[in-house]
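Q: I'm writing up a methods section and want to include an example of the input and output format. Could you take the sequence below and give the corresponding predicted structure tokens, formatted cleanly so I can copy it straight into the document?
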Amino acid sequence: MNPLSPHDVPRPTLAPARRDEILREVLSAAPAPRRPRPAWQLPLAAAAAVGVIATGSAVLLGGDGSRPRPAATTTVPTATTTPTTPVDDIGGGPLSPGAAQRVIDHCARSMGFDAGRYAPVFTQEARTGSGAVAVVLARDAATGTEYLCRDAAYGTDGSMVAGPQSKSVVEQPSADRPLTSVDAGGWSYATPLDRPGVVTDLGVDRSYRVDPAVGRVEMRVGTATAPGTWRSAVPSDGYVYVAAWADTELPLDGIVLETRAFDTAGRPLASDLLGTERPDLGSPRP
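A: Here is the clean output for your methods example:
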């Protein structure tokens, strides 16, 4: 045995009981083993994180991890209400009995009729582009002759709309055809300016027999790019008079007239007399 060689030093021996005691001490000092997370907890944690971001209340770290920054939020557009197209009510209600009789007298004289034979069946005071107008539909009960008269500041005019000597075809309205024409075409006017192709003082009117379901009739005149203001009138006694006019000068080419009607519940009505047309412009009004 060489006393300077560590390989020649005899190995100490431990009693079996001491060896088991040391082994137990080592094992009791080791960290506890980690338990695996159940698989169902992972998607729940991810969903919770998404829910916080969606509400816009989460605070996220900046790119360098040092400063918090607000979470990005998504702005949801709210529904907006489409502005209602303005409508101008032109009706002023029925005429007084005295005013209606004066209109009948004026028209009867101009047409060669005996005013005493006619009584009003429909009257309406209205506004037009040329001012106020009084409208009367008068009837001779003995012959069935009817004439429609307009009395305004610029004068009185009228036309026969029913009776043996009338050229008009009387068509009574119905649920299937809620409007029929009283005076075919009505009247229209435009004042030409010095510049060719431009008009001002543009106006149109129409008169209709209407079914009781008709609540109002509206009309406007203008162009495709400047359609004008809707003018509205409410029927009475089975008739309605409506007029439309332009508030500004317009190019002569492209002038259109639009007419629409609604029932008493405000629902649009269909009729062959409604829609878009090009008015036949007549003589200028004084």
